[in-house]
Fold these 2 entries.
Entry 1:
Amino acid sequence: MKLIQAIIRPENEKQVIAGLEKNGVKAFTRLDVLGRGRQKGLQVGAVRYEELAKVWLMVAVKDADLDHAVDAIKIGARTGNPGDGKIFVSLLVEARTIRTRSTDVG
Ligand SMILES: Nc1ncnc2c1ncn2[C@@H]1O[C@H](COP(=O)(O)OP(=O)(O)OP(=O)(O)O)[C@@H](O)[C@H]1O
Ligand SMILES: [Mg+2]
């Protein structure tokens, strides 16, 4: 199992989630967050925005779904401009569904 954490533009969230769903990945957790990447925010005229609004998506997937899920995020989140976001993937040691006592992520 893998844990995907994606930081994306809020305006691209809907199409990312639709893309995940199309690939069979239905469950996720989202948070509104502030962050910055390598440009350290955004300069608009004399005003510097040091932290920009992003959406943090957390998706736990089976190994077999990883590539599809990452592709869906990449496609849905990309504009080609700085600030499109990041995708972090890590190993997920355990997932428990409380109701069913299943140890599967699905
Ligand atoms: N190294 C990092 N660690 C944790 N969060 C990060 C990191 N880099 C970026 N982020 C998060 O991702 C958001 C989007 O980052 P962003 O797309 O600007 O990355 P970037 O590396 O600067 O790429 P680009 O050059 O395309 O802008 C940031 O606002 C921040 O929340
Ligand atoms: Mg950036």
Entry 2:
Amino acid sequence: MGIQPTEPNCPLCDAPPNSMWRDRGGRDAWYVDCVRCGRFSITDMVVINGLEPTQKAPLSAFCRRVPRGAEPPTISSNNITKLISMIPQYTPPEKLDSLLERMGRMSAGLGEYTTFDPAKDYPLVIAKNAGEVNFLTRELQRRGYVDGTLEGFYLTSSGWERLEQIRKSGPTSNRVFVAMWFQESMSLIYDEAIAPAIRESGYDPLRIDRHEHVNRIDDEIIAQIRRSRFMVADFTGQRYGVYFEAGIMLGLGRTVIWMCDKKELDGEKLHFDVRQFNFIDYESVQDARKRLYNRILAIEGEGPGQFEKPG
Ligand SMILES: [Zn+2]
């Protein structure tokens, strides 16, 4: 066979990348620029050991959803699990909603074809491949939310109405549930870091004040968690309620962003079971705000954008 000097395929989607080049700083790694998976670097160790198909699809989704202008992620043997855990796991109905939202966001206006291209944009909706997107698109069409021709697909008026509805509730809503200790000492971190980081990335923070001595989670809180797209949970102060609320969100299969003051995380105060998660261990309010903002963009793609119903 001999050595072929040709460029290898993209290690995440196994198709030819735009370009792929060796790290010039002496690291044993590749840089990849792929129309499907975006830009990322990947160590030789990962390429040589190979990735399972069940790892490739979420890693591709993770890399593609990093916003333009942000630092491209590096995939190495010791962060694969962490990166995969940051990708939301959608149920089939949530996948339909997510595809409809993406198609709408990538439409210039009423009756215009969406620029969403299943062949290259499937990682944006965390699908395994274009085939899965085509299946979901047919289902959206069957429900009357999109219609199409050989030229492409566009949202119908029922589709735009459905979008308005799903953006008000559930995993495609704009709402972000904030679970944290309600104590005077925490108001700075909420007002100056958590709330602004959520707003700047295009979402609405929701914080439910309640009496700390009532050590139970009421139905209202569970309902609000259900209606939220993801959760920001700050474990500083080690409140029972924060663990419980994060557990509910995990049970719904939605994303929880873990935060804690670095002093408490270092002090090993955190409950053992949650130490496995990728915590934002902030050292200051500014640090918390910047890292939370970056984390939201990393897990949620480019954010919901300024979505307006055209026409
Ligand atoms: Zn790729």
